[in-house]
Amino acid sequence: MAELSFFVGVIGNIISILLFLSPVPAFIRIIKHRSTEDFSSIPYICTLLNCSLWTYYGLIKSGEYLVATVNGFGIVVETIYLIVFLIYAPKTMRIKTGILAGIMDVVMLGAAIAVTQLAMKGEGRINAVGITGAGLNILMYGSPLAAMKIVVTTKSVEYMPFFLSFFSFLNGGVWLFYAILVRDFILGVPNGTGFVLGAMQLALYGIYRNGKSSIQYEHLISSSSNSHMKGNNKSLSNLI
Q1: 135 in any annotated domain
Q2: Which of 67, 180, 186, 209 has the fewest CB atoms within 10 Å, measured from its CB?
Q3: pLDDT for position 211
């Protein structure tokens, strides 16, 4: 069982690394254009905090070194993303990003470590860190719900990248399986949530993959509105 859990954990690490690297094309674009355009820094700030908490969890809980190593890699990657963002962001956005990153990734993380180290011991400390990380993880997994709403509304998957949904599904599934093998409920709940939401995204992708793009959708609405207005104008002219 130990060998199987290690093997599954290694696969989970590989998939997680692919997820961490998925924003690379966006940052290549930022560097190329020397502008952050409409990209937001919030996902990277939250992911950095999430990775930091799970690295801490992996370090204080015996046998969870696979969790610690992959999230340690995530800390490095997300830090690089934020540095690039700060370099190319407008001054106002740079200040806001710096303040938010300072609050979440320094103050909040430092407070969590200090409280759990000074006021808690043993299983209580492990559970407190794990539950905090799990809660943040669930919020992050739930962030695509807005994109899913757009997909249903527009009947287009334009704003829900397939590979991000696919790897989120795989990542949640593999880490859920790992959590079952090592009997880690705290690790299993957020990844089970991610697995279900990833499956829902893939289902939507299958339903709407041949749908109209947002531009076509807007054009269709515009054409329909124009036709409706013309019809109303014609009716009015007949009445007059």
Answers
A1: yes
A2: 209
A3: 66
| Residue 18 to residue 33: CA distance in whole angstroms | 24
Residue 192 placed within a domain: yes
Give residue 164's pLDDT: 76
Cβ density class 3-15: b for 16+ within 10 Å, e for less: eebbebbebbbeb
Query: Is 215 inside a domain boundary?
Result: no
| Total of domains in the chain | 1
CB 84 within 8 A of CB 54: no
SS3 letters across 119-181: HCCHHHHHHHHHHHHHHHHHHHHHCCHHHHHHHHHHCCCCCCCHHHHHHHHHHHHHHHHHHHH
CA neighbours closer than 13 Å in the CB half-sphere of residue 87: 12
| pLDDT computed for residue 212 by the predictor | 57
Query: Token digits for 219?
Result: 């054009």
- DSSP helix/strand/coil, 64: coil
Domain that holds residue 98: 2-209
How far is 154 from 162, CA to CA, in rounded Å? 16
Contact 176, 188 (CB under 8 A): yes
CA distances in angstroms from 11 to 110, 167, 169, 174, listed in the order given: 31, 12, 14, 7
What is the predicted pLDDT for the residue at 114? 95
Q: Which residues of the chain have pLDDT under 50?
A: 213-240
Q: What distance in Å separates the CA atoms of residue 219 and residue 19, rounded to the nearest whole number?
A: 34
CA 123 to chain centre: 28
Q: Which residues contact 18 (CB under 8 A, 6 or more apart)?
A: 167
Considering the domain boundaries, does residue 199 fall inside one?
yes
